[in-house]
Design brief:
mainly alpha
């Protein structure tokens, strides 16, 4: 009888060990899948440092938000001039301390976010909240100055865009 109990105890211990080993293997496989997903995500985004999952609601990058506000305001005009686009890039490159390649990437990402909504007020409000929550008062003041420079470049903006600019300035000051 004691031998039988000993054998059953040994089999039980082996079964528990096997179950734990199988669970550990499953966990390791899940970690490997997650790592591969992250690697693939970086490749899909061209190596960009992404924040959020690509939806406007989850965006948390104030650099993209800065480009987004200016592009939203400029795109509100029926005629988008190269002069205004250059003004956006130059002003934000100076403020953010970035080069042309990174500015192009941020600008492209911002325009992708802008495609998700045609409501200028909602988009600029969301972007302004991101800048307000992630930037210092000095950085926000620098952005407002850059926004004024871009707006004063080239032809006048629409009344709807002027209203959006006023809301953004009120939010950031």
């Amino acid at each position: 009888m004691h031998t039988l109990i000993g054998i059953l105890t040994a089999l039980g211990a082996i079964a528990i060990w096997v179950i734990r080993a199988v669970n550990a293997a499953r966990a390791a496989a899940e970690v490997a899948r997650t790592v591969n997903d992250l690697k693939n995500r970086k490749r899909r985004t061209g190596g960009a440092n992404t924040y959020g999952d690509g939806t406007l609601e989850t965006l948390n990058d104030p650099r993209v938000a800065a480009f987004g506000i200016l592009h939203a305001i400029v795109n509100e005009d029926s005629v988008v001039t190269a002069e205004k686009i250059n003004a956006i890039d130059e002003n934000l490159m100076n403020i953010l301390g970035i080069g042309p390649k990174e500015a192009e990437d941020l600008s492209s990402r911002a325009q992708d976010y802008l495609k998700q909504s045609s409501n200028l007020g909602a988009v600029t409000d969301r972007f302004a909240n991101i800048i307000f929550n992630h930037c210092t008062p000095r950085e926000r003041a620098d952005f407002c100055a850059a926004m004024k420079t871009v707006i004063n470049t080239g032809p006048d903006i629409t009344d709807n865009a002027k209203s959006a600019v006023q809301k953004v300035q009120q939010r950031l000051t």
